[in-house]
Amino acid sequence: MSRKKRRSQVKPEVKRSPLKSIALVIIVVIAMSFFIASFLESPSVNLLIPEGGAQWIRLSEPFRLGPRFDSREITVFRKRFTVEKIPSSAILCVRSFKVVSIQLNNEELQKPQSSIDLWKKSIQLDITRKLRPGDNELVFHVLNLKGHAALLAYCKELGIFTGRDWEVMTFNTFNQWSPAVPVNEPVSVEVSQKFPSAWVAFSAKLPIFIFLFCFVFVWTIVRSKYPASPESFSFNASHLRLLLLSGWIVLAVNNIFKLPTNIGFDVDSHMEYIRYVADNMSIPLANEGWQMFQTPLYYVISAIAYKAFFRLVNESGMEQILRILPLLCGILQVEIGFRFMRLVFPDRNDLQAIGTLVCGTLPMNIYISQVVGNEPLAGILSAIVLFLCVKRMINKPQDYHVRSEVIFGLFLGLALLAKATAILLIPLAVIHFFFGNDSESRTLKSLYKPIAISMGTAFLIASWYYIRNWIKLGSPVVGGWNPGWWQDPSYRTIEHFIRFGESLLHPVFSAVHSFGDALYSTMWMDGFLLIRKIGIYPPWHYDFMIAGSWLALPVAIAIVVGMIRTSPPKIQHVLMFSRIALMLYLAALLYLYLKLPIYSTAKATYTLGLMPLYGMLAAIGFRPLLENKWLRATIYSWLACFGVYAYCSYFII
User: Fold this and answer.
1) Residue 302: which of 328, 333, 266, 278 has the closest Cα?
2) Over the stretch 22-68, which tens digit does the pLDDT of each residue have?
3) How many whole angstroms from its chain centre is CA 174?
4) 348 and 634 in contact (C-beta within 8 Å)?
5) What is the domain-level CATH number for residue 158?
6) In sequence order, what are the residues at sequence separation of 6 or more whose Cβ sits closer than 8 angstroms to the Cβ of residue 22?
7) Which of 143, 114, 44 is nearest to 481 (CA)?
8) If DSSP states are collapsed to H, E and C, what string results for 572-584?
């Protein structure tokens, strides 16, 4: 065949116009902008934003970790000022959180609003005629049943702006006026100061980390200089997987009876749910208890164990037995992580090992899997769903048939019954069909059948619960926000989203400072101390745990780098899918953080199902450094210290 003929048979590359992609991005940005604007304008979103040079202010009170209950206490704000010459116009602008009445010189200017839903509407009053030469006094009475009363007010003509020079009191303070504080002022939690700082904890364990670092560093350099023969033993990712699984089993057997009972996130309420199912052989409605809004799968499985053992052990022993299921879920995360890395990096043992280590020692999985709760079961089922998604994207579509779609739908349906957050998997489950290596040749018609089978299977398994909620409670998804109580801070500020760093200094309960500190302190350590009971803390090794805030920093940075850097063509669709998954979960956390303004809203454990993605992204982030033997030895040594800190932090002696 002639060269000209062969060239004629080569299909010319089609140059795609970027206009469609640009248009799609513009449409998405515009739609998201409208959604965000309408969301922030909603009166149910307690976001306090400065305006007109004025700050939101409130009464100075210590930060409380416990629940607060509705009250009708009125907070009074006062500003005294002197007017030398009455201006031709003086407009007072007021925003209150939430209901306000206004007085100027003991004369009422504004009666309380008729509804708390009006609190985001600015009140503008012309006070020119009410002013008098000399001394004047503005007084604001603010009522907020479910949060701290706060005020923003300014009059530019008079130079009046809410700030620290204002006074505030409540009637419980016996008419004692005190300086107001800005709502965005950093707070401190007394409990946090009872634990060592990150520097003190790291210094205490530094000799151990130096020894381990040097040992692994030298071992890695020697191995790279004198590579092993094919017949000799070589430590690989599979051996690391076995080591991590063995360590997890030892930790589980050691800790299951040593960890005190009644420790964990709402553990009493989880036990109440389990007893309800066991005693009544039915599933409660969301309004029948504190945690009864949770989806039922974990509680049904635990109720079976409860029925089997309740005559043999007391209540404390029962709680210890019920810890077995969460521990098994935590152990399975190691296996899923290893299989995920082997699938994504089939020819790179080093990347497999890094990803497996991160998945096997991620602190949030270790501490949350030791207590009664539904998070570990939801996490492992979500991880399996994501594993199946990535497996489809990498393998050829002809390798799949009806059975594969049914299995995928089965795990998706079970995840939806394990925790309502698995609803986020539904769009990911649909999207992943479009992200295969052959996505260019796929058509909607070819995808109709697998999507219908998998989604249909998930619907048959899980829909009954959500339909039941819809019929009996008016909504398919019912949250756990009890209208009779609230918690600090009760509002959000811009600083909650841009501030970060307290988790690197005093990580325990650093979540009260910002969204970023909340995620960091709960991902890389037990930053909430499993929501401690009064005077009772989990018996973790706090020097190891708190030192981890520094040891985990390179791993966290690697995950972020893995999110933004390019990847080999074979897994570029997987990386794009992972970015979408993480951004979707992050958006959901931000939504909840704004919608439910309490200090414990943002927990990284809500993303437990993304653990395989965290491991993969960390491996991709570290990948450029592995080409140099000295940097590679440094990375391995640091990761060894990371793994030891994560394990030792939660191994009870």
Assistant:
1) 278
2) 665 677 677 677 777 777 788 889 999 999 999 999 999 889 888 88
3) 41
4) no
5) 2.60.120.260
6) none
7) 44
8) HHHHHHHHHHHHH
- Domain holding 88, by residue range, is 57-185
Regarding whether 168 and 82 lie in a shared domain, the answer is yes
Helix axes 198-225, 542-551, angle to 10 degrees: 60
Helix (H) or strand (E) run with residue 362 in it: none
Nearest to 387 by CA among 245, 565, 581, 523: 581
Residue 253 is encoded by which pair of tokens? Answer: 């057997």
Pairing relation of β-strands 492-493 and 134-143?
Answer: unpaired
Can you name the residues that pair with 161 across neighbouring β-strands?
A: 154
Look up tokens 């994207």; give the residue: 393
The residue whose two tokens read 């965005």 is 184
Question: What is the 3-state secondary structure of 269-313?
Answer: HHHHHHHHHHHHCCCCCHHHCCCCCCCCHHHHHHHHHHHHHCCCC
Element (H, E) at 628: none
Q: Which amino acid is located at 350 in the chain?
A: D
16 is written with which tokens? 């795609």
Total structural domains in the chain? 2
Please give the single-letter amino acid code of residue 43. P
Encoded tokens for 341? 């890395």
Band (571; pLDDT cuts 50, 70, 90) = confident
* 56: CB partners within 8 A, 6+ apart: 48, 50, 95, 97, 150, 151, 152, 162, 182, 183, 184, 493
Q: Residue 496: inside a domain, yes or no? A: no
Residues 424 and 460 in one domain: yes
Q: Average pLDDT for residues 89-102, to the nearest whole number?
A: 93
Are 75 and 168 in the same domain? yes
Q: What is the pLDDT of residues 208-261, one digit of tens each?
A: 999 999 999 999 898 877 665 555 456 789 999 999 999 999 999 999 999 998
Whole-model pTM: value is 0.90
User: β-strand 492-493 against 47-48: which pairing, if any?
Assistant: parallel
**Cβ-contact 610, 577 below 8 angstroms:** no
The answer to whether residue 30 sits within a structural domain is no
Is residue 200 located within the same domain as residue 120? no
The pLDDT tens digits of the residues spanning 555-566 come to 999 999 999 887
Amino acid 403 reads R
